[in-house]
Specification:
This protein is an alpha/beta fold and about 400 residues long. Helices cover about 40% and strands about 20% of the residues. Strands 7-6-8-9-10-11-13-12 form an 8-stranded mixed sheet, with helices on both faces.
Length: about 400
């Protein structure tokens, strides 16, 4: 596997400045593999799943690293220890100046990180995403975007196989679908069970089965409640659990400076697009993943606060995605199939919001045209995404 996009940044940012690096992300996205790649001494990998390390860690965190070699240490899955934050704080306070520490684990690590401030000022958080069209080891900065670069991974392959390392690099569509099914099953039976006390996993499984059909549409929790026969609060809480475990994510409507904008209903997307049968919906989902990855990367590396939204009025006038930068509209992205004329909604909101980038992506290989009078650039999915992270 080639070097992942965060590898050099982790070394130059957190580890070089004596901060712990916290790396979170979806199950099987490659967090441990990336962490191992940063080690200069292979014996510096310490996992909670190793009984010998576990016994040492809970009694003497500093002593548990006695056999380490030079360079960073990787602590994997230590969030399974109920007192991991306090023990990690003690280790950092005693040895953080001379031992670079990288902490990886399941998405649960990110949840517990947000749950308290006992480690405040001692770490920098990073979120690892699946592979994307433009992923490369070099940093991609928001002020130096160049659309049309050589893609690192083909758009067609990501659409067919998803971006998770194992199915994408294997190349088999049949095995990718099996991998996707087994991954979802493990998330429900292991990760959800470890995180929350969910009494009826069968109903939760039905909820996950319903989500692929709702990609790109306004999400109605009431509609899900009626289908599943459970309370509104239960649907809301279960969706929150699935988001915390990086199974799905939601984006909210942008309502500033938009007349008659909707203000409540979000849209939902999946981190694994393979369960989505409808091809246009899968394309939109994959675009959402690419844009969210860029937002997280630029935010985590201190290039600004980037967030992902969509724009929609109560009259149904809509642009699929809006990226904000430091609270201001920055980039509009509209997904189309073969329509290369700038969409009226994109032209309208580009003028109203004054966005720097106004992009319409089309399923036409190699297409790239600038409509200067509208401030809109229309280009193929692959050419646009090759310029992102």
């Amino acid at each position: 596997m080639s070097q992942r996009y965060l590898q050099a940044d982790l070394a130059a940012d957190a580890l070089a400045h004596h901060k712990m690096a916290f790396l979170s992300g979806p199950r099987q996205v490659g967090k441990t593999t990336l962490g191992r790649a940063l080690l200069t001494s292979p014996q510096n990998y310490f996992s909670w799943d190793n009984p010998q390390f576990r016994r040492l860690w809970i009694t003497d965190p500093v002593g548990s690293l006695v056999d380490r070699g030079p360079g960073p240490v990787l602590l994997d899955e230590i969030h399974k220890d109920a007192q991991w934050k306090d023990r990690l704080k003690g280790l950092y306070d005693m040895r953080g100046a001379d031992v670079p520490i990288l902490v990886t684990g399941s998405a649960r690590l990110d949840i517990f990180r947000r749950g308290g401030d006992s480690l405040m000022g001692r770490y920098l958080p990073y979120r690892l995403h699946p592979f994307s069209v433009g992923e490369r080891p070099q940093s991609v900065l928001p002020d130096a975007l160049e659309f049309g670069n050589t893609p690192a991974h083909a758009w067609a392959d990501l659409l067919r196989l998803g971006g998770f390392p194992e199915p994408l690099l294997d190349g088999s569509e049949a095995r990718a679908k099996r991998w996707s099914r087994l991954r979802a099953e493990r998330l429900l039976t292991e990760d959800v069970r470890d995180l929350r006390n969910v009494r009826d996993l069968q109903v939760l499984r039905l909820l996950t089965d319903l989500l692929p059909e709702r990609i790109g549409s306004l999400l109605s929790l009431n509609a899900l409640r009626e289908v599943l026969g459970i309370s509104f609060a239960t649907v809301r809480d279960w969706l929150a659990v699935l988001e915390e475990l990086y199974h799905c994510f939601t984006i909210q409507p942008w309502d500033k400076r938009i007349a008659r904008s909707i203000v409540a209903a979000p849209k939902l997307y999946l981190f694994d697009p393979l369960p989505i049968a409808d091809l246009p919906a899968r394309r939109e989902n994959l675009m959402a993943l690419h844009l969210l990855k860029a937002c997280h990367y630029w935010t985590d590396l201190a290039h600004g606060e980037f967030e992902l939204w969509f724009v929609r009025t109560r009259d149904g006038i809509e642009v699929d995605f809006l990226v904000s930068r430091d609270g201001k509209p920055w980039m509009l992205v509209e997904c189309k199939s073969g329509d290369t004329a700038p969409a009226p909604a994109l032209r309208r909101f580009a003028k109203e919001l004054g966005t720097v980038h106004n992009i319409q992506v089309v399923d036409v290989d190699g297409y790239d045209r600038v409509y200067a009078e509208d401030g809109v650039r229309v280009l193929s999915y692959e050419r646009f995404l090759a310029g992102l992270v």
